[in-house]
Amino acid sequence: MSRRSAREVVLHLIFSHDFLNNNADELLENRLSGDSFASLSDEYPLYEQLPAAAQIDYVQDTVRGVIEHTPELDAYIEKYAVGWNVGRLSRITRAILRLCMYETLYLQIPVAASINEALELAKKYDSDEAASFINGVLGSFIKKEVQK
After folding, report:
1. How many domains does the chain have?
2. What is the spatial distance between Cα 48 and Cα 61, in angstroms, rounded to a whole number?
């Protein structure tokens, strides 16, 4: 499984957490298993194989980190999504923003790569308008918080 695919799995897990509100370890245990992947593989080709060890580490670390840092990440979203309350954003938009912000702040993923991946995920799971919105929020966030 590629890093891109692993990132997409992370997005699904972050999105699910927004509904379930369970702890990260419980979410990972339930969803990052052979049985869970097998049950989703007919609907999503992404789940046809379990991630390799390096990608499992990325998935686990990122999901745990995003969940742990959600209040901080949401504060950044509120700060840079001018005129928008986090609760008014779609769950998928929130998940994409949280993921990209976490990657750039805590995982030292190159900014351009993380933003590009965020926009690709937005185009796949949301709308072109959402991708433009995400790009604007992330651009402001990067300028002020990451590239100091």
Report:
1. 1
2. 22
Question: Cα–Cα distance between 135 and 99 in angstroms, integer?
Answer: 13
d(CA 111, CA 101): 9
Report, as an integer, the average pLDDT of 33-61. 89
Kindly report the pTM of this predicted structure: 0.93
Instruction: Express as a percent the part of the chain with pLDDT over 70.
Output: 99
User: Which residues form the domain of 44?
Assistant: 3-146
Nearest 5°: the CA angle 141, 17, 11 is 55
Closest CA to 65 of 92, 29, 34, 101: 101
Cα–Cα distance, 128 to 102 (Å, whole number): 22
Sign of CA dihedral 141, 142, 145, 148: negative
Give the pLDDT mean for 123-132: 91
